[in-house]
Amino acid sequence: MAASTSKALLGDVYVDDLITSCGNALDFTKPNGVFYKSGNRSRCRKASLSFRSQKGPNSHLISILGDRTLKLISGSSYLPHPDKEETGGEDAHFICIDEQVIGVADGVGGWAEVGIDSGQFARELMSFSVTAIREEPKGSIDPARVLEKAHSNTKAKGSSTACIIALTDKGLHAINLGDSGFVVVRDGSTVFRSPVQQHGFNFTYQLESGSGGDLPSSGQVFTIPVIAGDVVIAGTDGLFDNLYNNEVTAVVVHGVRAGLEPQVSAQKIAALARQRALDKSRQTPFSTAAQDAGFRYYGGKLDDITVVVAYVTG
Ligand SMILES: [Mn+2]
Known about the structure:
Its EC number is 3.1.3.16. With 314 residues, the chain is an alpha+beta fold. 22% of the residues lie in helices and 27% in strands. It binds manganese (II) ion.
């Protein structure tokens, strides 16, 4: 799946742009969150793009790992690439409140060259993830098994990254495949950041329907102890390519101090990421990576931006 051809895209940047295993082109973008929120009997439902705010700002009670009273209070923000607002872009995400699971996916934009909207794959993958989560034992959800099932059920053409994070009896239990990911912030410091999985610069690991792409088993699995007061920030590369860790952390810390709900913090993070994405001169994580890969590239990267913020509360 390494075959690639070089294509010119934004400005003077050249990137590998894959057809068979589409890497993100520099034309990165994606919009349209799939939002699952409990509130009915099935406890996890699709709720389109209406992000209702959630109750209960985080408390600062210190709990120990394994404390069954820990909860995730989550909110999200999704800013599609400006050019893709009409189709909703290619990112997708979900929040399952009662199961305490969040997920993000980033459909690979390169498929647009062959007329395929990868957003469909990403949304289907997240939708089937929610279905699989409902079948998991309460309190010990296995994100790897969830992703495996979701992948086997997803039939749409396209490909996508995936990141699923569950709060279980053992702490955070997560799987990440590709260049989406998550960070855990504690007392103003980043205590965990999931590594990016790439085959090469701008060529993410990705799931594809059928036998193409990478396999769910290539995803990295994590078990991370958490305590009340921790904040989990999950996002697609539209977030992590544009904001440095300390920038994300600063917004989170401010939000917690101000008693902001997670959705509001997510909106603030997404807005800052968008601001950086539009900045043509400021150094960003993406411009650094591009330069390291030998490209002349400055500024941010315009893309779909998905941010899910989850407060771990006692
Ligand atoms: Mn992206």
